[in-house]
Design a protein that fits this description.
This protein is an alpha+beta fold. It contains 9 helices and 15 strands.
Length: 455
């Protein structure tokens, strides 16, 4: 009914790599090759039998019979799908590939359908890396957000963290005997439904048994993340940590979001520096924006009689101001006053923690401590000036590296198959009048076009 062809003698059928018989083995003489069952060899084999042959499940797979005529009768063979373990490994590999990527153009990426076990594996693996990512995981939607360190983000975060550390040092010098406090740059907060890593977490812990930990403030700086995602994290955080006294958010917007250059028909141009060092100036080369900070917003929330309400419009409990492109003095003055109010709540947290350890502790020195404003807004802008240039140059080098490698890979593949050079390679390798060979980034090949999506 069916004509079967042994895989070792057919020029139309693929070679089965895990076959127990060599491709060079002598062909069967006058014998019909035995058929094997898929159940005996795993998911990669297909059950193909003749009308008079029965599958044998106890022998290893040696040959595969290929149908040359479509079947008309008999039960259909269900497709074999990849195992859940294989799918999980692919998902983990995709996340880890994004984390360890060296030449990156994107610093933020979201992954869906990441199970809790996969998240645990990814988190453990990322702990060992030098450039530790900030992970945010939703236990309900199984969504994992990965935020990698970037120059713009870290520049603003470092200014704020150093300022808060100076305030913490003042308070801790007074109360070091009773409590231990620290500004954590990479502490994972579990908020029940979500888990994320804020940029700064102020933790105050009592020196007693068992120790009592409280979190008076957290800070988030968003450069590649969305503001809506941060607000959602804050809502969960205040439910799980009602003692939070202050939440500070700084949002750095880049409009439009950075994209790799589209395929161009010319060689690369030198990356020029910004015209001004007085403010973060957009870096535009060959009509392409490499880094353009267009807007910086600052918002702060403080605790009233109840836990912080992220959605409140009460000006006594929240303030928002514009830091850039035009410094709004009135709104930023309100933000400054609100931050000072949050620092006073941080001092109250120190006092409460001291009294948990010793009810008779003298806290008058803590109450009278003068707390300065922890940082200068101008320092944030000053850092972003150079962070913008560094980010632009980083993106340019990454794009150039990916583009050059993509063209080289396709050129090598073309030569290997045809023995000829591509037109692009011939053009690029030919020296000009000045005997200078142009770099390989003539954006004319399909591989170079694909590089625009790398990152």
């Amino acid at each position: 009914m069916f004509s079967s062809v042994p895989i070792n003698s057919s020029r139309h059928s693929p070679v089965l790599r895990n076959s127990t018989r060599s491709n060079s083995a002598e062909p069967l003489r006058g014998k019909r090759p035995p058929s094997k069952s898929a159940t005996s060899v795993g998911r990669s084999a297909f059950k193909v039998t003749g009308p008079s042959a029965r599958p044998k499940t106890s022998e290893p797979l040696s040959e595969v019979s290929v149908l040359t005529t479509p079947p008309t009768t008999g039960p259909s063979v269900p497709l074999k799908h990849p195992s859940s373990k294989a799918t999980a490994k692919v998902q983990c590999d995709q996340v880890l590939d994004f984390i360890v990527r060296q030449n990156r153009e994107k610093y933020f990426k979201a992954f869906s359908r990441v199970t809790q076990r996969q998240y645990s594996s990814i988190r453990c693996a990322s702990e060992k890396l030098a450039g530790k990512p900030r992970l945010a995981y939703d236990f309900e939607t199984l969504r994992l957000e990965v935020d990698m360190p970037s120059c713009v983000h870290d520049s603003a975060t470092n200014v704020i963290r150093r300022g808060l550390e100076s305030v913490d040092r003042i308070l801790q010098d007074i109360s070091a005997r009773l409590i231990r406090s620290e500004i954590h740059p990479s502490l994972t907060l579990n908020t029940g439904k979500k888990e994320f890593v804020p940029d700064c977490v102020h933790v105050v812990t009592t020196r007693c048994n068992p120790p009592v930990r409280k979190i008076p403030s957290i800070v988030e700086v968003a450069f590649t993340q969305s503001e809506a995602a941060l607000l959602d994290r804050f809502r969960n955080a205040v439910k799980f940590y009602p003692e939070l006294g202050m939440i500070l958010m700084l949002v750095i917007n880049e409009t439009p979001p950075y994209q790799s250059p589209k395929p161009l028909g010319h060689t690369w141009r030198k990356l020029h520096e910004p015209q001004s060092l007085d403010e973060p100036t957009p870096v535009i080369v060959e009509d392409h924006s490499w880094c353009a900070i267009t807007d910086i917003q600052v918002q702060v929330w403080v605790r009233g009689r109840r836990a912080i309400n992220i959605d409140t419009k009460d000006k006594r409990l929240t303030a928002r101001g514009t830091l850039f492109p035009v410094y709004d003095e009135a709104s930023m003055h309100d933000v400054t006053l609100m931050i000072m109010q949050g620092l006073e709540l941080t001092r109250d947290c120190f006092i409460q923690q001291c009294r948990l350890v010793d009810a008779n502790a003298n806290v008058s020195t803590l109450r009278s401590a003068q707390l300065p404003f922890p940082f200068k807004w101008a320092d944030i802008l000053d850092g972003l000036i150079y962070a913008t240039q560094e980010t632009a140059h980083d993106r340019y080098r990454t794009w150039y590296h990916n583009s050059a490698n993509a063209i080289d890979d396709e050129a090598e593949e073309y030569i290997e198959v045809t023995g000829k050079r591509t037109a692009d390679e011939a053009e690029i390798d030919a020296p000009n009048d000045g005997r200078l060979v142009h770099p390989r980034i003539g954006m004319k090949t399909r591989a170079a076009a694909r590089s625009a999506s790398y990152g």
